[in-house]
Amino acid sequence: MRSKMMGCREEHQSTHGSVLGGKPNHCVIYPPKSSIVAGELERRNNDWFVRTKVASDLMVQVGDFSFHLHKLAMVSKSGYLNRLVFAKRSEGHGHNGGSLKIVLDDLPGGTITFESIVNFCYGFKVDVTAASIAPLYCAANFLEMSDDLHQGNLISKTEAFLSFAIFSSWKDTFKVLKSCESVSPWSKDLLIVKQCSDAIAWKASTDPKAFTLGQNSNGNLNVGESSDTWWFQDVSTLRIDHFIQVIESIKRKGVKPELVGSCIAHWTAKWFSGTTFVFDDPTIPKHLTQKLQRITIESLINMLPAEKNSVSCNFLLYLVKLGLKIQVNSELLSKLETRIASMLEQCCAQDLLVKNYGDKDTTYDVGIVIRVVKAYVLLALKNSRARLCIVGRLIDGYLTLIARDINLTLIDFKLLVDALPTNARSCDNNLYRAIDMYLKAHPSLMEEERASVCKAMEYHRLSEDARQHAMRNGRLPLKIVTEFMLLEQVKMARSISASKSNINPRTTTQVIMKMNNKKCLEKGFIAPQKEIMLIRKEVENMKMQLNQLQMCKLKLQKQVQRSCIK
């Protein structure tokens, strides 16, 4: 490597730590001798001058600064400046001892980089680091400072140190890549971004012990990082276009899909605070910021690993939330919802909890879960192996987690309850628990509203304990309580009939009367509180009668067994 440096002397410092700390690799470039003997470069306000006995005959303007230079020193090493000077002289400029003026509006790196180029052209040493080498290399290519013009020219010297910085140090690789942000698209066209991405991918896919890991501000090694995820923190500092290229390189290296998915989630958490893009900048027009956000989210969705279980359901739901807010491509969003729907049978209720951030919003975003459940139902209609009952239990569990939210509207609660078909629930215990919690948290609901909430709950899908609790629950609407009591009486009557014992005619008549009372309720009449108390008492009496019959049955069975033994 040193033989390739050709006058570039490295002063290598150890490079421990993350991107944000430590001393970078340092290189001093010693250029060939200049054809002009000059002193140092000095600045006067917005003008730069080279201290020499020869008058300046070339002015180069870069941004707001003017460099008063000499054609011989500059054009001997820059093919681009050589052509511009020749063109200007052909047009009649610079004759009679006048100074030529050249404007470099698009020079990569701007004024700071051009100052280093001037120093190189006049034979002064140039100090470069990992943070400054990429702009200098891009500017050297822009100005066509190749060895064809002058042996040991700036392109070859910067290229040598650039390769060294990229592949020798994990930290310096990121320094180089971060510096490429200011010199796009030159850094991309010159493959600097690709080289950095490949270097990061290679290092991330190998033994992390071979590379120095993160340090805190005191220089002590961070010990809380997993051996598999040690590279996440530094990769998450990259902007989206460079992050995409790094992820593509990492995928090609065969890194596990689960790690790739986790890294994407880590980057998203870093750049999005809630649903606000950290890149928000008041100096950038709003429509451009929104466009950048949309492109970012769409890029994140497109780069997700396709492998099953490579990305968590919770993160995918978060992407849906961001996508809806930023209005990403609807087809892309639909594919994402379908992917989440296919994962529901392996999820737990906590996986569906995605936080809202508005003061008047629900604690968790219910709307995105409703969308995904509807997508699941569409999938289940096409797939005979779909396990609806598993998703039914999942949604009922989720309902119990969100039911106490005072901002949860009746409409959203009902939409989620009714999103699944009736055959998705074999037991309504969790649904009843969620409904009871919701009614307790929303005491101002009208009778009809409470009845509409309870509509999906069915008597025969509740356990015995849940039924008894429901019949004593003052939060449930009277219509539901009365219906459950009537059904309990019918159940008791059938049990008594099944025991083949004599049934009190009065009891049978009362059951029929209660069933008629149910029909009245369906027509809109509400039973008075006194009637409900009487029904409860009758149910208890029937239970006692049933217990007595069962005791008699056991005694008879024992007597029959004794007779058989004799």
UniProtKB/TrEMBL annotation:
All residue ranges annotated as the BTB domain in the record: 56-130
Pathway in which this enzyme or protein is active: Protein modification; protein ubiquitination
Residue ranges occupied by any NPH3 domain in the UniProt entry: 229-491
UniProt KW keywords: Ubl conjugation pathway
Signal sequence residues: none
Pfam families: BTB, NPH3
Taxonomy, superkingdom: Eukaryota
Record family assignment: Belongs to the NPH3 family.
Name of the featured protein: Coleoptile phototropism protein 1
Organism name: Gossypium hirsutum
Gene: LOC121213861
